[in-house]
Amino acid sequence: MQEKRTSTMNPRITLLITACLLATSAHTQSEIEEIDTQRCIATRQIKSSVVIDDSNILFFMRGENIYRNRLPEACKGLLRYKTFSYRQIAGRICESDLIHVHQSNDPSIMRNCRIGIFESIDSQDIPTLIESLHRPPAAEELPSAKVEDIGNDP
Length: 154
What we know:
This protein has 154 residues and is an alpha+beta fold.
């Protein structure tokens, strides 16, 4: 015959365990959210890159991952020349590293710009992203001017 034991836990211990479980759950959720952005990517995994505009570059990786890099400041000439290079350190490119913008057949550097955080995106989101970036700004209605009667004073 087996003996069945039951025990009652102190309510304070139960509350402490519940708080720990909730904290672990929140920590796990933040880890999942961090997967969507990265400070660095391995350069050997980069298959190709596409300049969208002076502030955004897509990095297509081996496999199916795609990262959007939103530069902290617009890099004038990046879209025009569409050619850039970077110095890799330890086989990766990271947030705050510099990219060097070039004319396509000219090795001289036109401009240096800082790279931003790498955001993982789905390939299906690329057309929407490009459309949103290239959409003209919405026109704002200007206030009406007050019309005054200008006449000849006698």
